[in-house]
Amino acid sequence: MALTATVYSFDVALSDVDRGLYEQLTFKAAQHPSESDEYFVARVLAYCLEYREGITFSRGLSEPDEPAITVRDLTGAIQVWVEIGNPSADRLHKASKAAPRVVVYTHKDVGQLRRQLEGEKIHRREALEIRALDRELVAALAERLDKRMRWELSRTDGHLYVTVDGQTFDGAVQ
């Protein structure tokens, strides 16, 4: 019997001081059975940190050619391609050809990712953005996953503060 995705409902009070963006977000996110809690949390954080008109989650790990998150313009063209974790150089090469902006949010060792990509052919390598999420923050949020999540998420000067059930967790985004 095939396992099904777990669907989470999020209510996020987003205060992104770095971008001057203040929104109340309400969305659902599905966690694929093979997706770790940390990967899922990183994906949700990336969605919030990249939030703008036209943002969507992909259909998940079952669609390996799609990015984790996209931002499309009104014509349907991809404007931002967001990857999570440690994507391959080939994947980032493809992404850079498909979208004007490519961002990786990693919840893993950013040094390992940089070494993995070193010397590899990546279209517009200089434009590639890599954001390292604080691993302890991601782990703390993963431990508190519940079907209905309420977060207060603030970003200021590259630092995240996430309040869940009255408890605040923080970490840098480098």
Give an account of the 3D structure.
The protein has 4 helices and 10 strands. The protein is an alpha/beta fold. It has one domain: Restriction endonuclease-like alpha-beta roll fold (Roll). Helix 1 crosses helix 4. The mean pLDDT is 93.
Q: What labels would you give this structure?
A:
10 strands, 4 helices, alpha/beta, single chain, 5-stranded mixed β-sheet, 174 residues, Restriction endonuclease-like alpha-beta roll fold, 23% helix
Furnish the topology, listing elements before pairings.
Layout: E1 6-16, E2 21-31, H1 37-49, E3 55-57, E4 69-72, E5 78-84, H2 89-98, E6 101-106, H3 110-117, E7 129-132, H4 135-143, E8 148-156, E9 159-164, E10 167-172
Parallel strand pairs: 1-8, 5-6, 6-7
Antiparallel strand pairs: 1-2, 3-4, 4-5, 8-9, 9-10
Helix pairs in contact: 1-4
